[in-house]
Amino acid sequence: MAEQKLIKLKINEREVQVPQGTLVIEATRRMGTEVPSFCYYPGLSLQAACRMCLVEVEKAPKLQTACTLVAMEGMIVRTDTEQVRQARKYMLEFLLTNHPLDCPVCDKGGECELQDMVFRYGADSSRFVEEKIHRPEEKWSELVYYDAPRCILCFRCVRVCDEGMDVKALGVGMRGANSVIIPNRQDHLECEECGMCIDICPVGALTSGTYRYKTRPWEMAYVPTVCTHCSNGCKTTLSVRNHEILRSNNRDLSGINGDFLCVKGRFGFDFTRHAERIRQPMVRKSGKLCPASWEEAAQAAATMLKGVYDSGGKDAIGFIGSNRASNEENYLLQKLARTTFGTNNVDHHRTADYTGLITALGEHAADSLLTMKQLYESKAVLLIGNDPTNQNPLVAWQIRSGIRHFGAKLFVINANEIKLKRKATQFVKVSAGQESAALRWLAHEQGQLAPELVEQLVQLKAGLEAVSDVAVVFGAEISGAAIAMLVAFGSKLPGKTRYMALGDYANSRGAADMGVLPDRLPGYAYVGSPHAHTSFEKLWGCGPIPPKPGLTTPQMVEAAQAGKLRALYVMGANPLAHFGTLSLGRDKLDTLIVHEMFLTETASVADIVFPATSAYEKDGTVTNTSGEIQMLRKGAEVMGPRSDFDLLRILSHQLEKLGLGKAFHYKNPAAVFEEIRKTVSGYNVQPAGLLTGGAEPTRVEFSRNGYAPYDVPVGLIRPAKDTLFTSGTLGRFCTMMESLPEAKA
Amino acid sequence: MMELSTALSAKFEKLQTSYPVKRSALIPMLMYAQDEFGCVSDEMIAEIGRRLDLNNVQVEETLAYYSMLHRKPWGKHHVQICTNVACMLKGGNELLERAKKRLEIGQKEVTADGVFSLEEVECIGACTGAPAMQVNYDFYENLTPLKFDRIIEDLDVGKHPAPEPVISGALHERHELETPLISRRWGMKDSHKIDVYLMQGGYKALEKALKEMTPESIIEEVKKSNLRGRGGAGFPTGMKWSFVPKDTPKPKYVICNADESEPGTCKDRPLMEMDPHQLIEGMVIAGRAISSHQGFIYIRGEYRYVLDIVDGALGEAYARGYLGKNILGTGFDFDLLAHTGAGAYECGEESALMESLEGKRGYPRIKPPFPAVVGLYGCPTIINNVETLSAVPSIIREGGDAYASRGTPKNGGTRMLCIAGHVNKPGIYEVRLGMNMKKFIYDVAGGIPDGKKLKAVIPGGSSCPLLAADEIDIPMDYDSVAKAGSMLGSGGMVIMDEDTCMVDMARRIMHFYAHESCGWCIPCREGTTWLRKTLERFHAGMGRVEDIDMIADLAKNMLGRTFCPLGDAAAMPTISIMKKWRNEFEDHLRGRCPYKSAGVLVGSR
Questions:
Q1: Contacts of A47 in chain B (CB under 8 A)
Q2: Partner A contacted by B526 (CB < 8 A)
Q3: What integer is the mean pLDDT of A639-664?
Q4: Does B563 touch chain A (CB under 8 A)?
Q5: For domain B414-496, which architecture applies?
Q6: pLDDT at B604
Q7: Does the beta-carbon distance from B529 to A176 stay under 8 Å?
Q8: CB neighbours of B309 closer than 8 A, spacing ≥ 6?
Q9: Which residues of chain A have a CB within 8 Å of the CB of B570?
């Protein structure tokens, strides 16, 4: 960014230096003095409606609103004079005239901005003796309730819905003191149900269907963690009482997402308490899954695996990792496979080709991956494929915010008229599957394309060449060799082009980074690379890791159902549903062991099922689709299930007892992360940032080392095609989500 | 898709393509749709939304803002009785009570047979014909109980009683102290027709401006004329025009603010109904001065017949080549469109008017930037009152100096004044700026009826601090009235005699501002409503001694702290009444109002 000119002004007799263009309210807040406000909200358009931020400015005839006043050189501002104090006091007195003051029964009591303001700046008594305006409460959706009398008409909800979400589901009805907020369908809402309006409401006017009248804010513990739904990795704070999650939001505006959360992040946590949750280990006896003790199940699992290993050899067992489990758990799974069983038959359900992107970037991988913040600050975004509004809501939010705040230009290549088209500078429509052909043309001007399409691509190319530092964001439509073409095109654009591959599920990227791949070791090191093998074998103290790549997930499932693979160990995945022939079930497979939360298609046909915890019930780290690591913290607790970390640890001990491999002696996931920091390329980040709730970008040091160009077979990358209202297995068990009419559409 | 009549469908098609931005057609479309269907239905909201690419909450929030738009049908004849200050002084409240009894319905109710509905409304711009009402869009003025009953009886049997031919009080014998300039054609037969206008030297100023003058010299001439904004604020017009940036690639716009709704004011209405071409000519010249090619006349929704007259005049001007492409062969293009409001006082505030013209709720905008730089559709815009723009042809024709010489230094020209309330000759007069106020009230307007004493004067619309009888011996120019502690404002004078209850006056004024507050900012939204309720209670005899100081205190703490001047407009008259007639508040503490009811309906005595 260009050097900003600094200007000097005096606030409360103190000289302050701020960048030119800073609003006085920001300048004042930055020096630690509060100027109160309701309607001012950083990132949203200015209102100057609440008049709480009136300040005295020397030479101005009357008080000025600090939220619209741009700091000028030599300006003299006072925020704590008698006149200012009086103005605030009256403003609050006015505001309370039609406010019901039902704080004792209001959800917001205790964390209400109006309460806080009156406490700090208000009068100690009210002179209002007239009748208040009353209106009944309205239910707008299963999630959103509106209580008009409490509403102070700051219009934050209307703005965040329009400007922030581009949904425009809220408006203002009536006029004057009768003004109210109105939903878009007469008496109810039809929208993305993100709940941003509830979150941003400073008072208890908009309340949440999942939280209202359940608790007082001071009765809960607040646990910062990461949303477990899509791959964007929004930070969220779980409000927990008696081990139960009652609310999820990010009101402290920290993390990569600020206050943004989508419907899943904000409301999608009730799966943790779903009645069908598996709560104890189960072992198949005479064809039926029966509850078993932990000891019995663990011993049975170890014995079965040892049996297959002894009779079928190293490659008779396959391991499928999880795109929901933590980095530590995925790391341990592939370590177990490679060290204890000596096989590369380890993979996960891939939804984006991270391997392809890292490989294509090669030596530039470390500094060419786009973070969420960089995406927001980009001057231009090239979006190929995917529908971020539905599949990657934070990515869509970052793009929209960039357009709004910095005038970023958005170029879209897509086979569908996705919602972001409305914000696009240019939208190029291709037919489904034609994305890579369009890329080939952009990169090499090769290929047979319709002249109209070529014309549009010429324009798109010119548009991108006119800006610098383009952010390239792409979905699963682009994989393997097409990514190489994309990088070839991007590297020719002016400035620094950065890339983000859009996957699905909370830890898809982490699973790939951890080497839960048949052809790559942790940090994408090639299986077969002598240098990588030596260093990992030394570190892990294990026998030789086979130099040949193992089976991919589709190959494992196919081999298993066909009876060619004898045992399959599945951690938090549902491969039979995603890759298998469902009607076949497990078919000829000898042994199937699964860690799961629910009896999925795969778990229901397993020999042994271990009840697993969700991400909200464990510690660890996850890596989002943009390669930023964040910490998971245990918020809720459900009786029965254990984390995959615990389960793998137990299994390793049982296997050691049977003489197979070495038991894992990690005390906790943090100990595993210590090892990951040392061994996995890009993960040597400072823990301080993570511990304080921040995100640390990974910088993968990668070298192609003369390996053959990379490509992926058709069918290996399978996007989840989730919408805003689905979330793989988790979504199927979110009662809240089921109740929304939008989810059924 | 909804079934629309051919006429409405054609109207929609035209409106959809008339504006630089489609959404601007929203309010006119809602108004015309309502005219045809009686109200705006859900289907209509969807239909209009579809046509304008708006979702239904966008349509609905705009609709909900304007008091003339409604979701449920009114009666076939919607009787709207004004009880605002001028009408109240002449018995508007009693008329309303009579109507309630006669029609057997209350406020905003519809008779069982669906023929009548009743609404107490705010100032309809018929102050010089008070008490007045509108039935649908028709004006009926100088009402007496008998006249009112007859109108209702006629309507009831399907007859259409003739509405006022022109606004009452505009046509009268000219007093020797009058200086008719922009009102000089009033009363001539067909003065609204282009032929009459041309015969009277019309469009000569335009010819001069286009052929002999440069944009700079036009602005220079207007500066010389010392013309100041006639809408109320009195800002020098030439200076306002000179703020428009010259080297901008954006289009520029000229807007005529014809949303006349300041209580007591009804001068723009006759200026448009009797001399629309003068306004059109003024606007084209203004367009030339700032190199704009598109103008809008935003006319308040209640003035539908005026809009029709202006539309007719626009048609004539287009047909004769005074509007459109290549005007008078000079290569200058200017398009002009008359646009209807839908009932919102706040839209008289210039930035709120622009929001409204863009098809949104009439919320005022943050200033700066000012409209001259960022106005309509974010483009440079000048916005002037009807009277201001109507003076422009005279200024160009005879020169700025000649125009200025009619007034006092810094206050050029003549001023339209409406005088209503307790005077013998209520009416609309054109006088030199600087005329003595007392002389005007007693000589020109004939003094106070029945030999009563004067108690108070609203000098220029209800937003102005009130003057007491001993404060009116002052010249009527912007600066002198300001020195006397009030404002010349919009030229709407309201006279109160000695029997007027000033508590009731304060109550009625606050009732208006509470009704018209847009609800954007806290102090105005909550303050006006609080004060209205307290003043109502106080006037009803339930006041407490501490209320007196509180009312003044609340008003003072609204003053200068609201988003737009509406809060000040509510506070200023209240503060002045509290200060000058505090004794009347104290008198009310003894129980019921000790004053004769403020208004007495003529004929009911």
A1: 366, 520
A2: yes
A3: 97
A4: yes
A5: Roll (3.10)
A6: 40
A7: yes
A8: B192, B272, B273, B276
A9: none
From residue B605, how far is each of A22, B94, B134, B145, B601 by CA, in Å? Answer: 66, 11, 24, 11, 7
ipTM of the modeled complex? 0.94
Predicted pLDDT of residue B605 = 34
pLDDT tens column, B169-190:
999 999 999 999 999 999 999 9
DSSP state of A80: S
Bridge partners, residue A319, by sequence = A346, A569
Nearest Cβ partner for A62 among B522, B537, B560: B560
Is B528 an 8 Å CB contact of chain A? yes
CA distance B441 to chain A (A): 34
With H, G, I as helix, E, B as strand and everything else as coil, classify residue B268: helix
Q: Do A182 and B521 touch (CB under 8 A)?
A: no
What length is written for chain A? 745
Q: Which residues of B touch A190 (CB under 8 A)?
A: none
- Tell me: the pLDDT tens digits for B202-227? 999 999 999 999 999 999 999 999 99
Q: Which residues of A touch B537 (CB under 8 A)?
A: 130
Indicate if the pLDDT at residue A339 is higher than 50: yes
Contact B475, B437 (CB under 8 A): yes
Mean pLDDT of A379-387: 97
Q: State whether residue A283 is helix, strand or coil.
A: strand
Classify domain B194-404 at the CATH class level: alpha beta
Query: Does the domain formed by B502-604 have CATH 3.40.50.300?
Result: no
CATH code for the domain defined by B6-63: 1.10.10
Calculate mean pLDDT across residues A365-389. Answer: 97
When pLDDT is cut at 50, 70 and 90, the band that residue A446 belongs to is confident
Instruction: Give domain B77-156's CATH number out of 3.40.30.10, 1.25.40.10, 2.40.70.10, 3.30.1300.30.
Output: 3.40.30.10
Mean pLDDT value across residues A485-510: 97
Tell which of B61, B349, B355, B374 to mutate to test the A interface (max A CBs under 10 Å): B61
Choose, out of A24, A51, A422, the residue to mutate when testing the contact with B (most B CBs < 10 Å).
Answer: A51
Asked whether the beta carbons of residue A63 and residue B561 sit closer than 8 angstroms, the reply is yes
Domain map (residue ranges) of chain B: 6-63, 77-156, 194-404, 414-496, 502-604
d(CA A436, CA A487): 12
Distance CA A148, CA A99 (A): 9
Mean pLDDT of chain A: 96
Smallest Cα distance from A28 to chain B, Å: 20
Alpha-helical segments (H) within B341-445: 350-357, 386-398, 400-404, 437-439
Q: What is the rounded CA–CA span in Å between residue B374 and residue B377?
A: 8
Give A51-99 pLDDT, tens digit per residue. Answer: 999 999 999 999 999 999 999 999 999 999 999 999 999 999 999 999 9
Residue B603 — pLDDT band, cuts 50, 70, 90? Answer: very low
Lowest mean pLDDT among A286-290, A738-742, B246-250, B387-391: A738-742
Which of B60, B518, B550 comes nearest A171 by C-beta?
B60
B571-585 residues labelled b (16+ CB within 10 A) or e (exposed): bbbbbbbbebbeebb
**B57 and A168 in contact by Cβ < 8 A?**
yes
Q: Which amino acid is at B550?
A: M
Give the model confidence (pLDDT) of A183-192 as tens digits.
Answer: 999 899 999 9
Name the closest residue on chain B to residue A130, using Cα atoms: B533
At B602 the pLDDT is 47
Contacts of A94 in chain B (CB under 8 A): 522-523, 525-527, 530
Contact A399, A409 (CB under 8 A): no
Contact (CB<8Å) A184/B55: yes
Tell me the residue length of chain B: 605
